[in-house]
Amino acid sequence: MTEAAIEKENKEIAQQYKELLRISYQTLTDEDKKLIRSAFDTAVDAHKDQRRKSGEAYIFHPIAVAKIVASEIGLDATSIAAALLHDVVEDTSYTLDDLERMFGETVAKIVDGLTKISSLKKDKDVSLQAENFRKMLLTLNDDIRVIIIKIADRLHNMQTMDAMRRDKQLKIASETLYIYAPLAHRIGLYNVKTELEDLGLKYTEPEVYQDILTKIKESKEEQDAYINEFSKIIQDSLDKENLNYEIKGRPKSIFSIRRKMNAQNISFDEVYDKFAIRIIYKSDQANEKFLAWKIYSVVTDHFRPNPTRLRDWISSPKSTGYEALHITVMGPKGRWVEVQIRSERMHEIAEKGYAAHYKYKNADEKEEQGIEEWLNRLQEVLENPTVNAVDFVEQFKLNLYSKEIFVFTPQGDLKSLPKGSTPLDFAFSIHTEIGTHTRGARVNNKLVPLSHVLKSGDQVEIITSDSAKPNINWLDYANTARARAKIKSSLKDEKKQIAEEGKAVLTRKLRAQKIPFSEKTVNELVAHFHLKTSLDLFYRVGIGKIDNQALKEFAASRSNALVSYIKRKISKKPEVNHDLNKDEITANYDQLVFGKEEDELGYKLANCCNPIPGDDVFGFVTVNEGIKVHKIDCPNAIQLQSNYAYRIIQAKWVDSSQQDFKAVIKLNGIDNIGLVSDVTREISSNMHVNMKNINFESDDGIFSGRITVVVKNNDILTKIINRLKKINGIDKVTRE
């Protein structure tokens, strides 16, 4: 580089530094400025010999990240310093100890967190990728600012990705849409989230992005004219109320237009709410609420509101701190328009998230406290880091993007839950103990099933019982990550307990067959029953799926040397062995069941999406070909579900070797007092039995009854029938 070029670059660096201080959202003290200057000088020195792929000096990247942190996210001087230094330890000769000595423990800790994230092994394998994200999210425990600066770093990388190879662009953009945009959304950084999503689309679907961008530019003039027409109608009325306000248009983001076009299978022109109108008013905090509703009444005097689209986040702010009043009204030319009503304070919170929220909440209270609050909410997702990494990230995303509902406890406290939550989710959100001992629920004083979907404004009361415990069906009713993780953990513990009992039973049964209980025998049994782990074997013995008869067959095949030799050849020993000592009971999804009652019905797999065992699926009752099974995300799913909803039937894959089955027991005898309670006590005292339906009739002293039970296996059913026969007054017990 020529001397003139170097001088020009140095001038630009100095210019950028001044701008960084000028655009900082927080008011910087002299002490803050000193810290930022020192971090800036260190970063310039550390990166002096480095260049980016585009050819510019590397130092422009940390400065740009610091500017995003300072102005768009609005964090404090500590964060700005950490952003300037975020690549120093990873890329230069400076060490973490150097930074701690120069800038103190907090800055060093944040930089360390950022370095850890960057050094995670990048791989195309989704499970490794998910594992990396999980590790990244667990660094939240150290300091939330790590993630916030990481989001700023990612935003700048996305803004400057043109010089990269196409495959790299695609990888980084997909990763951004996969986790960084949802994270920004959850922290309340809506502007950053929108930009990340739009840039993500720019690189994952460039043609679509350009097409929508062009159409937005073409229709901008028309939209501006529409906003002016809308504003004129209400301006006079607002002015009469002596309000200090401004009306702005807000175009919908490219990404959200694309999402709507996909979800509703419509063209760009058919997206009716491509823009919203914002009314931002000046107010002191005491009158904010009053003025918002005053503006609401002015707008609805002129335009008819859609009553189902009112969103009041002023009375109940979102968990990100977002406050506003959203109404959708029928505007001029018969178009639906979303009107957002917010004060200047609310607008700042919407733009900056937590930084603004806590600046306004209390000038003395640092934003860390707000961040603490958010961190506690995230904790529930991070509580169970033992689950499969892909599930973990999927659940995490589910929690990040979920819309909120607000429900009341019996005492009248307000609780925020993700949309689609059930009483089980509510129970686990209060306390794990309440969740695991849930027996039933009342919503607005009425008993409801645990699968009941809660709505905003519901009052929810959980009925608990010491003897109640989670069962596998609960996973169909629970939607939040916390509830699902706790249920899975509880079921896993129960299965392990059954497996322990099964191990003891197996030892006894093998002794009776004169077979030693050893690792070799266990390996042979696992191979014989086509299982994956020894725990699978013990569990199935525990629930009676592998009974005496099955073990006798094993003993017979074992004593036949030829059969045994062939078996060994067929069962590819090494494949079985490598999972053998896994500390889990695996599921082998090999059977489809349909409807709420989980019936086994005939079906065909649809060719359009070729579902495989374990996929999320639904059944579609065809006219000539019986039930066709489609994946939930099948290209034809939306059309089938909207046009033929009455033909859709619930379906799911289950593990037939762990599956319960239904049986109906018929009884008759002489009616006497207490007979019904004797019968029900006998059934309910058996651990592995669940009563689904019960019906008793008495006619002139003779009693008859039908009981539907769900049992693990035939042995248990036979035991129950034999016990019922012994009850005084029972004459006959048969299986229907």
Automatic annotation (TrEMBL):
Coiled coil region boundaries: none
Span of domain TGS: 403-464
Cellular component, GO annotation: plasma membrane
GO MF, one example: kinase activity
Stretches that traverse the bilayer: none
A GO BP entry: guanosine tetraphosphate metabolic process
Tree of life domain: Bacteria
Pfam families: ACT_4, HD_4, RelA_AH_RIS, RelA_SpoT, TGS
PANTHER family (alphabetical): GTP PYROPHOSPHOKINASE, GUANOSINE-3',5'-BIS DIPHOSPHATE 3'-PYROPHOSPHOHYDROLASE
Family recorded in the similarity comment: Belongs to the relA/spoT family.
NCBIfam families linked: spoT_relA
Record's function text: In eubacteria ppGpp (guanosine 3'-diphosphate 5'-diphosphate) is a mediator of the stringent response that coordinates a variety of cellular activities in response to changes in nutritional abundance.
Name this protein carries in UniProt: GTP pyrophosphokinase
Upper lineage: Bacteria, Pseudomonadati, Bacteroidota, Flavobacteriia, Flavobacteriales
